[in-house]
Amino acid sequence: MAGPLPHSKQIECMADTFLSDFRQEVVAAELLLKKSAGFQNIFRTSLASDAVLSKILTARNGPPAGPARAIVSRVPILVCARQVGPCRVELRRFIELVIWHVYFEDHPVEWKRFECEPRRGFVRDMEDPIDFCAHRELTFYLNYAKSRMADEPSKIAGRAVDQLRKDQSILNADVHPTGIVGHGITKFPLDTIGEVELKNLNVIQRSVFSSACIVLAARHTPRFNSIGAMHRAHFDWLVGSKTSKEIRGGPFGL
Fold first, then answer.
1. What is the pLDDT of residues 85-136, one digit of tens each?
2. Total-model pTM
3. 164: Cβ–Cβ under 8 A, 6 or more apart, which residues?
4. Cβ distance 142 to 99 under 8 Å?
5. Residue 153, CA distances (Å) to 219, 222, 236, 249 in order
């Protein structure tokens, strides 16, 4: 794309060509994804996850439900645009949003402080305990979530927190440049969307979304117990038959 400094009319033409080229790539991806079992699994995972979150993720304190649900819907959209890498970044952000919810739901004072400066970054100074707890790294909030689920009788929610911790560790490489450097990496801005790539994405997508829904279901047991048959069917499919039977066998939740 490099060349002499263009004037405004040239920029307009170049941008139009760029959009036309990208549209062709999206159309080609659409034809491929229509026949893809991997994409159907990605779509179904997002569909089921949003159905569950619509019933159990309602914040009194902490981040609103909108951003987490937007990520759930954004994953298949990004796949259509051949942006598998950014999908994985979004999954990492989703984990943080859900774990924030678990912590800040119990800490309204800290959430109010966080809202005042949401982009402040980590606070290392313990002289102000509210600031210190309102702006911590994800590990702190994961540790809190694990401790919070210690009294959950089935221990399923605690295992789900552990799984989110593992997924976070995997996805960290996609957030940092380590995920885009190395042998075989090119400058081409569109990702490969073959069945192998889509299957691998769906594995981590389903792991993150199902574990998050289990944690939220345990945190908000009355909400979870009151969801209808349709939404419960989505939950059962998402977490898998073995875990679903364990949860139905009870007791489950806080």
1. 999 999 999 999 999 999 999 999 998 888 888 777 777 778 888 888 888 8
2. 0.90
3. 95, 98, 99, 142, 145, 208, 211, 212, 215
4. yes
5. 12, 15, 19, 12
